[in-house]
Design brief:
Layout: H1 5-19, H2 24-47, H3 50-80, H4 85-89, H5 92-101, H6 103-106, H7 127-130, H8 134-149, H9 151-175, H10 185-196, H11 209-239
Helix pairs in contact: 1-2, 1-3, 2-3, 3-5, 8-11, 9-10, 9-11
């Protein structure tokens, strides 16, 4: 029964529908999935409005259960239609799919867990594959590579900013002190971070002329600092060559690998026929 051709044929057909967007039914399945995800997120938002929840609680609850059951069936189908289920279960999308399915079940035992249904918004990342917006995926990859290449420069920059905040916070604590709200060095460092990032909550403000002068310098410094990470990442992005854009949405049934080239006949990762 394990190698029954009928079972294998059934799995292959559902694998093509669920994992790929090249076929008509595959696109229909993915579009219906996106609509269901959006509907579910809207339900959670509306349910958080007390006036609406009191009037339509039963409708919200039944609708959410219907969607949860449908997502549960989809999750099971995704597992049984691949040859190596663990590859999917522990993949990025596999974990997201599980997290977006279990909140409603958890809500029966843990109060407030239902709100985690909003995690389903992460599933909307599939829209890039569904609509074949591979240029956006390529741009995302370019940004990811640029961030990875500049991570040490950004880390050094953030460390320098933290040192500056500690120094400024300490100076402001000595200059202003308790009367102005700078009751401790940590609280003064908090003020320095808020001011340097140009947020400026206003809960703490310097009162002395020297303190206000230092605060003005910190604000001006903040505008210059904000631009530095953008420049670092921008330089790295300029170094990156434009990625090769492929429209192939085939997913390997054996190892769940995707992003194959348009003319690929076999999986680049395990050699399985596509």
């Amino acid at each position: 029964m394990k190698n029954d051709p009928q079972i294998n044929s059934w799995k292959e057909k559902w694998h093509e529908i669920i994992y790929e967007a090249d076929s008509r039914w595959g696109r229909i399945f993915d579009i219906v999935l996106i609509v269901a995800i959006l509907f579910s997120i809207i339900l959670v938002m509306l349910e958080s409005v007390k006036e609406l929840d009191s009037k339509y609680h039963n409708f919200f609850n039944i609708s959410e259960w219907v969607i949860t059951i449908l997502f549960s069936i989809e999750y099971v189908l995704r597992i049984i239609t691949v040859k190596k289920p663990k590859k999917y279960i522990f993949s990025f999308y596999g974990i997201i799919d599980l997290l977006s399915t279990i909140p409603k079940y958890l809500s029966m035992f843990i109060g407030g867990a239902h709100a985690l249904v909003a995690l389903r918004a992460l599933r909307l990342l599939r829209i890039f594959r569904i609509l074949k917006l591979v240029r956006f995926v390529g741009a995302t990859n370019t940004l990811g590579k640029a961030l990875k290449a500049s991570r040490f420069k950004i880390l050094v920059f953030i460390s320098a900013v933290m040192i500056i905040c500690v120094i400024i916070g300490t100076i402001m604590y000595l200059v202003e002190g308790d009367p102005s709200g700078f009751t401790s060095i940590p609280r003064s460092i908090y003020w320095a971070i808020v001011t340097l990032t140009t947020v400026g909550y206003g809960d703490i403000a310097p009162q002395t002329a020297l303190g206000q002068f230092l605060a003005s310098l910190v604000m001006i410094l903040g505008y210059g600092i904000i631009a530095i990470p953008t420049g670092i990442v921008g330089v790295e992005m300029a170094k990156e060559k434009g990625p090769e854009i492929n429209l192939n949405t085939n997913s390997c049934q054996n190892c769940s690998a995707d992003n194959h080239k348009d003319d690929a006949k076999f999986c680049y990762k395990c050699g399985e026929k596509l």
